[in-house]
Every structure is written in structure tokens, then in C-alpha cells.
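so my prof wants the structure for this chain in the C-alpha cells format not the other one, which i didnt know existed until like an hour ago. anyway here's the sequence
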Amino acid sequence: MKQAIRAARIFDGEREITGEPVVVVEDGRIVTADPAGLPVTDLGDVTLLPGLVDSHVHLAFDPFGVATDQTDPDDVVLARIRANALEALQAGITTVRDLGDRGYLTLQARDAGPEVLVSGPPVTTTGGHCWFLGGEADGLDGVRAAVTERVERGVDVVKIMATGGSITPGSSPFDQQYTTEELWAAVEIAHAAGIPVTVHAHASTGIKAAVDAGVDSIEHAFFLAPGGLAVDWDTVDTLVRKEIYVSTTTARRPTAEPATPVSLTLRENFGRMRERGVRLVCSSDAGIGPFKRFDSLPHGVIEFGELLGFSNADALASATSVAARACGLGDRKGRIAPGHDADLLAVAGNPLQDLSALLDVRAVFRSGERVV
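here's what i got, hopefully its the right format
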């Protein structure tokens, strides 16, 4: 069945279209067709955008709990995964990339509302960052076996912890967990199966190893150092040359706490990276804390405009067309264009003039079906 959706304006993932444009949908996809005679949903004075893409979430986590506590039964975790996915969908996030669950449980929740891309348990060293999710693997043979298992399980992306992290007791974000050779081995196996590799990396050594290994994207890329931040701009330039995406994981709900000097410097550094040509993706790391709820992504887009120097159009693209390409879905997500999935978000007003309009959701469509 064909249908038409009309709005006052459209942001198609790259640019604005005005004049009460109409989107024609058939069988869950956007098509080129004459809307005459079709049933029309007129959304009024709204802006229609592609559904948002959050490229870094943890659906199995309770943002008000403790991530390291993985004692809940599988059915409880599955219920949480579905509830968290629906929270994202209510905010207009129609695609999420889950970058760390327990026991591949998220594979059972691909129908949870948004399209769910799955990594399974992240590959980490024994006792390394997020070891409690069950992805421990050491050395070249261990890494190869771990990535092969994920390929056989049918994951959409391989997630590897190149450095330690802050939520795991005994783990340090400054410490490198895998060598360039080990990361390269993971990339070789995953790419042979057509699966991208994304790497958690906080400090310079881990980021450089990931870049040298030819990963597809890097999560965080904060360039953390004892006492603050220390960006290796040569590595940043290599990121640009190799066209590796950086998923910033900075989106969060507003907090009354004042911004720290380090967090402000981090945003300034991302702004400089953008100026040098790094392809930045707005993402949330939802699930790791109370300010990282699963509806946090729109707040990150607003921040991209306010603190990173993005134009409003570029900020919106960072969570639509750019994020879709980073997830390997650029041919069918992140754009309002023929052949793309009819995953759509309608917001009041015009986010190209005021990004806070993203917070006033008026409708959400998933594969052409209105769900909000």
C-alpha cells in the first residue's frame, strides 16, 4: 500500500526542502511516485527528518544500576533491552547500534522497535574493560577465535576494547589492551565476512593502534592522559586520511552540574578535529549512567551545534546521514530519499533554525508505520 506524508518542511539528511513537501512510502520504503490520489497524512507545521541513528548504546544496561552487575536472569535482561529500545524510539531514534551486551542477548531483540544492530559481548582481554560481559580473549589466536565466533553468530559489527575503561574496576583508560597486530587480525577476519570493526579507545596509544590496524570507526577517541587530555594530531590527520569515523559518545541528558575544564576542552578538541576533516558521529553510550538514558541523542546533536561549531544542518547530519554511513547503512538509512527505509521523525518548528526543536517530537515512523 502506498501512502503520502506531508510536512511544512523536510531535512533530508543533508539539506532542507521547503514548500510543504510530500514523501511517498510503499512497503516500508520511500519511493518516487505521484502522490495524487494517495491517502495523505498531513503533519502540519513540522519538520520531517530521517529517523535518528545512535551508533553507540548498551541496551542490556540499566542506566540507574551498576553495569558490572550482570547477575540478572536472561529474561530480565531481555525485557530491559526491549524497554530501553522503546525509550529510544519514542525520542525519534529509529536505529541503534548496540556495542556490548551479555551472551548475545540483543540478537533476540532485533524486533524491539528501532532497527537494532548487534555486536554481542565486546572483545576484551582477561580482566579487561567490560570483561563481565563474557568477551575475554587474549593474544592473536584468542582474538581470531573471538571474532570468528561473532561472525558465525551473525553480528552486525565487531566491537573491540583497545584500551581500558573507567567503569571496570582494575581497568585504566590509559592502558592499551591489544597490539596493532592483534587489532589487524580482527579487522582481517571481520572484513573478509563483510562486517565492520569499531574500537573502544580512550588514550593515544590505543587510538593509534586502532588507526594503524585499519578499523572502521573509533568510539570515544578522547585522547585521555593522566591529568587531562593530550591529542596526538598526527594520529588525527591519519584518521582523516583513512576516512575512519569517530563516534564521540558525548550525548547526554542535561545536568545541573557545571561542565568541568576537561569536558570543555574535550569539546574544543572535537571541534578542532572537525575542522581538520574528521568524520564525527554524534552518539550517546546510552546505558552507562543516569544521564545516559536511551533518549539522550537529541541533546548531543544540540551540543554539536552549541559547543563543537557545527552548523545546524551538519549537526543534524551527524546523527542521521553521517551516522548511518558510519554504521554501514548509508544506502538505506539516514536520508529521506528514494530507496531508503521510511524511518522518519517529525518535530515541531524548524531544527535548522533551532536545534532544540528536536526535543518536541510530534511523530515517529518506522518502516512507514507510525509508532508515535
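also thought this was worth mentioning. DSSP finds nine helices and 19 strands in the chain.
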